[in-house]
Amino acid sequence: MAATQVAPGRRGERVDLPAPRHLRPFGMGRETVVQYGGLLLIAVLVLAPVIPTLYQSILDRPLYEAGGALTLHNYVALFTEAGFGKIVLNTVYFSVLTTVFTLLLAVPMAIIIVRTRVPGAKYLGAMMQFPFFISSLVLAFGWITMYGPAGFVSTEVRQLFGGVPWNLYSIPGMALTEAVAVAPIAYLFCANALRQSDASLESAAQTCGASPTRILRSIILPLLRPPVLYSSLLVISISLESLSVPLLYGRPVGIEVFSSFLYTHGLHSIHPDYGVLGAASVIILAVTLVLVTVQGRMLKNAQRFVSVRGKAVRPRTFELGWFKWVCLAFVGFYVLFGAVIPIGGLILRSFSRIFTPLRNPFTMLTTDNYALVFRYHAYTQSIYNSIIVAAVGAVLISTIAVLAVLVSRRSSFRFARGIEYLSLLPQAMPGIIVGIGYFFALAYAPLGIGDLIQGTLWAIIIAFGIRALPSGFGSIAPSIMQLGKELDDAARISGADWVTTFTRVLGRLILPSFAGALILTFVAMFKEYTPAVFLATADTNVIGTTQLELWVQGNTGSVAALATVQVAITAVFVLIASQLLRGRKDA
User: Fold this and answer.
1) Residues 6+ apart with CB under 8 A from 468
2) How far apart are CA 113 and CA 120, in angstroms?
């Protein structure tokens, strides 16, 4: 399109200047190349482990064995397994209860910390995210140490009251522990949306005489529907594939869910049944696709959630009076008992020879656990590998997530919805299946690509990154939905094409969400380990696989030491990232 501008010179003289010209490879515009390129990249990365898994689910033998025949026996074996109906009910109960607990924790805390005036809100918001810094395996170990039947806190409560009112070895206990671990995800989604929201709607309601409670119920909570739905879908998917908590809590008392069933009857058996694993993964994939479809229909009219337009008003904070102390106690209770006490017990365990309530732990202090970790090259190499994988992967995946969100939400690309589905599809793939799928995909990759990637850190970066892509997408998407499309229109009227609008306008406005996605994906990839069980070699092990090896050996002290190192590195990264982006957080 031609841009008419006034050339310098005589008054009133107008000169028609052509719009900026860009390279048009194969006769296509820049935006077409970027959009189709993004679709191709995401499709290859996401479908690479899916297609071998689908094929394995209808094959009568492992993929690596020749002469296989197509069959539905794997699905028949899965559904005729004795007690499988009870397993399905346990899984549904565990997933739903985990999601409910997560939302009951995350949504009120996001509103309290971001939109109300409570003392120390900034520090409470940082502490709220502590449980997400470590894997659920380590957090579960910390909870057992403090709140288990023989834990420190349980022992004190039993001596004071004659009994313990909780039971970790139950589905509610499993759900509560898992909710504490994943609540920071929902908190980040809701907090980002609340920071971007326009306060003019609330001011208008207040002018009409609405009380703070009515404003909360009628304006703030409805505008939080996108992040709540995205985070709910993520929490359900995480709970479906969660393995550590069901193994530690459920297996000793005979409670089995879908993930522990796969572990017991698949990978943990002498002869793993890859066909049953493939069939189970296809079922999880189908369930998640249904959830994504429902989510898309509920968010179909995205204009209802737009609250940031060309003239935005900064979000205001509410003064709660005496009720702020109740809110402060609520947040403090979660931070103290959900994070500080278990993490403190974890750190104390890492410096103890024996950790038991029968002995004073301060008389058993030692650094032997750390000495063991740093004495062996394989253990220290796993720390270095985890840092490289998480740092490189976080930048790459967060960038891909931004591209996916902008193409799917702010373009006229004919396959925009397909990019969103592809970006959320990895939620349906348990880490076990992602590892197996990529193992087979790299083994059969054409042009020698598999030989170049197999056994290297790039294989782990790709597998971990795909697992983290839904988190990055979900962290950025709600913020994009709150930006009015008149911003795009203004840029296009000024002569900018879609790529320029992407890089010069929208990209800067979503920088806070990008920073959140960067931190979120770094933490997710830094604590991930399941796909590496199938992809890592002796030189490419990560912290998680090393922890698993030490846990199997019964060396819980070194597991705690590695977990403490993991938390410390993550905290340093978060601190540095926050300092670098401090001047741009209100973009």
Assistant:
1) 393, 394, 397, 520, 521, 524, 525, 528
2) 9
At position 398, the amino acid (one-letter code) is: S
Residues 6 or more apart from 420 whose CB is under 8 A from it?
296, 404, 408, 409, 473
Decide if 19 contacts 3 (C-beta within 8 A): yes
Give the separation between CA 262 and CA 87, rounded to whole angstroms. Answer: 11
Q: What is the pLDDT of residues 101-118, one digit of tens each?
A: 999 988 888 888 877 777
DSSP 15: E
Instruction: Enter the tokens of residue 458.
Output: 């790039």
Distance between CA 522 and CA 397 in Å, rounded?
9
Distance between CA atoms of 199 and 134, rounded to whole angstroms? 35
Tokens of 346: 């974890």
57-97 residue pLDDT tens: 888 877 767 777 888 888 888 888 756 778 889 989 999 99
Whose CA is closest to 58, among 68, 71, 45?
71
CA 218 to chain centre: 29
- b/e burial code for range 312-338 (CB count within 10 A of at least 16 → b): beebeebebeeebeebbeebbebbeeb
What is the spatial distance between Cα 316 and Cα 507, in angstroms, rounded to a whole number? 24
Where do the domains of the chain lie, and which CATH numbers do they carry? Answer: 26-305+324-584 (1.10.3720.10)
Residue 227, H or E segment:
helix 225-241
Q: And the tokens for 572?
A: 């340093």
Question: Which residues share a beta bridge with 308?
Answer: 483
For residue 141, CA distances in Å to 147, 245, 247, 303, 473 come to 10, 9, 11, 45, 30
Distance CA 26, CA 260 (A): 51
Does the pLDDT of residue 414 top 80, yes or no? yes
> Which is nearest to 260 in space by CA: 248, 271, 246?
246
Burial 17-50 (b: 16+ CB within 10 A, else e): eeeeeeeeeeeeebbebbbeebbeebeebbebbb
Whole-prediction pTM = 0.72
Task: Determine the 3-state secondary structure of 352 from DSSP.
Answer: strand
